[in-house]
């Protein structure tokens, strides 16, 4: 990545990983293929001016912003917006709801990689995050194991854990 998009991508990843750490989830790494498909989807959404999901095998969060002034997003705003759904998540009754699905994908413990796309015309901006493995799996016990309350410790039992730390 180059220039402004590179710093957007870095801030997007950094914001995810700061929130994930609070919830005992290991850090994500950037997946360039997911970045490509996220970018294509963001550009498509901008072209149709509609917020909707693609039909991929990955997890996906979408974000829309409009401003009368051309305001540059840093990569933090979309993730903060998704994470803010925590206020509606009931940790004592874990599971999927349409009001909390962005939050649960951000902190989903088993997700390892993320890609991001950004499309803007100066006023209207779409941000797409795509995740592998996908979160929000409704099988019994999955939400309990993957969406941990804030303050949970990151488990180091995962053998792949050390390899996820990459110096920036």
Q: What do the pLDDT scores average to?
A: 90
The quaternary state of the protein chains shown equals single chain
Give the C-level CATH assignment. Answer: Alpha Beta
CATH fold-level name:
Pathogenesis-related Protein p14a
Please state the structural category: alpha+beta
Q: How much β-strand is present in the residues?
A: 15-25%
- Classified in CATH, the superfamily is CAP
How many beta strands in the DSSP annotation? 4
SSE order: HEHEHHEEHH
- Determine the number of helices (DSSP H or I, runs of at least 4 residues): 6
Strand order of the largest sheet: 1-3-4-2
**Could you list the spans in which at least 5 consecutive residues all have pLDDT below 50?**
158-168
Distance between the amino and carboxyl termini: 14 Å
Number of domains: 1
List the helices and strands and how they pair.
Elements: H1 3-22, E1 29-30, H2 32-48, E2 59-66, H3 76-83, H4 101-107, E3 113-120, E4 124-132, H5 142-146, H6 161-164
Helix pairs in contact: 1-3
Structural notes for this entry:
With 168 residues, the chain is of the alpha+beta class. It has one domain: CAP (Pathogenesis-related Protein p14a), CATH 3.40.33. It is 36% helix and 16% strand. It is built from 6 helices and 4 strands. It has a 4-stranded mixed sheet with strand order 1-3-4-2. A hairpin with a 3-residue loop joins β3 and β4. α1 (3-22) runs parallel beside α3 (76-83). The longest helix is centred in the first third of the chain and has 20 residues, at 3-22.
